[in-house]
Each structure stands twice: as structure tokens, then as C-alpha cells.
Design brief:
By secondary structure, the chain is an alpha+beta fold. It has helices at 82-94, 142-148, 153-162; strands at residues 14-17, 23-27, 32-33, 39-48, 51-57, 72-75, 100-109, 114-122, 134-141. It folds into two domains: 1-37, N-terminal domain of TfIIb (Single Sheet); 39-162, Nucleoside Triphosphate Pyrophosphohydrolase, CATH 3.90.79. 27% of the residues are buried. It binds zinc ion. Zinc ion (ZN) binds at residues 6, 8-9, 11, 27, 29-30. Residues 36-163 form the Nudix hydrolase domain.
């Protein structure tokens, strides 16, 4: 997202030539640059042994089809590390706190202007206790996950990057 007005004082921003970054929105009142903003999110593929847990979510904004399986994901909160967000989101959504999370790679999701940090999470023994946001969670083996995530671009990239990897 490119800022048009200063988020602090609401003045209209002007373009200022800034090194290699070209024209960057600048507030002449606050004397500060406002670089383009994007969201920081985590996407987490949770597994136990050779089984992966995928979820179906209620479609709050209509962008996620309710019959489609996806990975756990969510926004990183202020003052939270990506690793902490990955553990929190899995714990909130599945009711199981990962025993380990491992950074896999980062992905851009341009449609929603997100930078998604991808993790593999190892789940402990126990049953799911689903968040109200979820319709269902289900275990799949590796071959099934590849098929289920076919239409889900970032999740599929994450899965392809960790297929067969050991924590
Ligand atoms: Zn300002």
C-alpha cells in the first residue's frame, strides 16, 4: 500500500527522490518518509510424523472457500517475532502447541500485499481443540497434501519447499 496522506498528521504527502528507491512519499510537516506498507504474516504447515494437519476456515471476507483445505496462517502482531506468531497461531487454531517450529522460507502474496514467513511445525500427541474460526482440521499424508493444496498458491509453495524435510 502506497501512502497518500501522512498517517501521523494527515498532510498530503509529496514524492521525494530517495537514493535508489526513486520517489518515496514524504511528509513535509513531520519531515519523514513513508515507505510502502505491507502486511507481515506467517503461514505454517503443521505435521506430526508423516501426517500433515490441514484446516478449513469460515470465510470471513469471502476470499477463502469454506470447502478448501489450507494451512494455518495469521498476522504477526506488534513486538512479536515470526516464530512466536507461528507457535501462537497453531496453538490458537488447532489447540496443540508445537514442540518445534522451523523457518522454511518467505513468500510474497501480492494479491493481499503480504509477506508470508513460512514454517514447518511439529505437533505433539493429542487431539485438536479447534478455534471458532475453523470448520474442521484433518490429517493427510504427504501425497494427499499436494493434491489438497493445489489451488492454494503460497501454501503449495511452502509444502513443495518442505516435502520430505525432517525437523
Ligand atoms: Zn505528517
Amino acid at each position: 500500500m502506497r501512502f497518500t496522506f501522512c498517517p501521523d498528521c494527515a498532510s498530503r504527502l509529496v514524492g521525494r527522490k530517495t537514493g535508489d528507491d526513486g520517489l518515496v512519499p514524504y511528509c513535509e510537516q513531520c519531515k519523514r518518509l513513508w515507505f510502502d506498507m505491507f502486511y507481515n504474516c506467517v503461514i505454517v504447515l503443521a505435521r506430526r510424523g508423516d501426517k500433515y494437519a490441514l484446516i478449513r476456515q469460515h470465510s470471513g471476507d469471502g476470499s477463502i472457500s469454506e470447502d478448501r483445505f489450507v494451512c494455518v496462517s495469521g498476522y504477526i502482531m506488534t513486538n512479536e517475532t515470526a516464530e512466536q506468531a507461528a507457535v501462537r497461531e497453531v496453538t490458537e487454531e488447532l489447540g496443540l502447541k508445537p514442540v518445534k517450529v522451523r523457518l522454511v522460507a518467505t513468500y510474497t502474496y501480492q494479491k493481499k500485499q503480504m509477506l508470508m514467513t513460512g514454517f514447518l511445525a511439529e505437533l505433539p500427541e493429542g487431539d485438536f481443540s479447534l478455534s471458532d474460526e475453523l470448520i474442521a482440521a484433518q490429517w493427510f499424508d504427504e501425497a494427499e497434501v499436494g493434491v489438497r493444496l493445489a489451488g492454494s498458491s503460497v501454501a503449495k509453495l511452502l509444502f513443495n519447499d518442505i516435502k520430505g524435510a525432517k525437523l
